[in-house]
Amino acid sequence: MTTVEGVEARGTQHCETTALGVLLRHEGLDLSEPMLFGLGSGLSFVYWDGKAMDFPFLGGRVKPFELTRNLADRLGLELLVRETSSPRRAWENVAGPVDAGRPVGLQLDSHHLDYFTSKVHFGGHVVALYGYDERDAFLVDTEQQGGAVSTSRDSLARARAARGPMTARHRSFTLAVPENAPSPEAGIVPAVTACAHAFLHPPIANLGHRGIEKAGKLVRTWLRRADDPGRDLPQAAALMEKAGTGGALFRNLYRDFLAECAASLDSRHLRTGHRLYAQAAGLWTDVAALVARAGTSGDERCLVEAGAVLGDIARVERDAMRALSLLGDGASAG
């Protein structure tokens, strides 16, 4: 059996930040999960529906692996990404770093992993691999999936080779922290303002605060849109609260990131953003409860109320991001 020494196999709430935490702690950089998420400008929103979809998708973060690239750019990390169409080369790309004593991040389809509790296809799942033997691979996944887990190498190969939405070509990656890397604190202002700009100025109406407003109008139709409301609506609610989001569709993570930033950066704009995201997080949890109740009861009034709450969230998050977009201004202190 080959394993990387000194790996802290600690699972957290979200898959990509869990893997990033494993890789960076091994490099001597220990950041909280909210800080990893926030420095990676991870918060977003997308409402997506289409003829080929069984049910609308609500996403609360940037697309898979964008968070990792953002974080590496922000902190001056050395990010080495490898992709290939060859399963043999894909395994060599993983085994080589592990043999050399370095854990590796993998993007794959979680459906094929032996230990995964929810057998749905998700090609944007990210794990950290820190060891293997002839039969199994040893991974770190989220806390809810078990933290330190194992899966057969055959299942891992299938997960990495999967094709479909959000999948990558056997993507693997490593991170290194150079000696002259900037401090995490130096990345706070550019990370927050970049996230705010993207949220406030989305290229299409499905994204950012415009997407939340659109969701508020369309959620009222979900009982008619669903093939099986008793299944689809509670599942949508569970995805907001439990599917690696940290609760409240990632708003809890961003709220806690802003609170951590406020401890080291004195800014009224930051304090305003934190206060409003604390409010938004609670409202998102209310929406999830209303959607779940609509599915189990068939009462459309729950969805009408959820739509009204989503309208409030759109305004709250827009105001929060407007405040946070001013974080780099000289007038922000105080």
UniProtKB/TrEMBL annotation:
The family database entries (InterPro entries) matched by this protein are listed as:
BtrH_N, DUF4872
The DUF4872 domain, residue ranges: 154-324
Pfam families associated with the record: BtrH_N (PF14399), DUF4872 (PF16169)
Butirosin biosynthesis protein H N-terminal domain residues are 14-142
- In terms of domain of life, where is this protein from? Bacteria
Q: What is this protein called?
A: BtrH N-terminal domain-containing protein
* Native species: Streptomyces olindensis
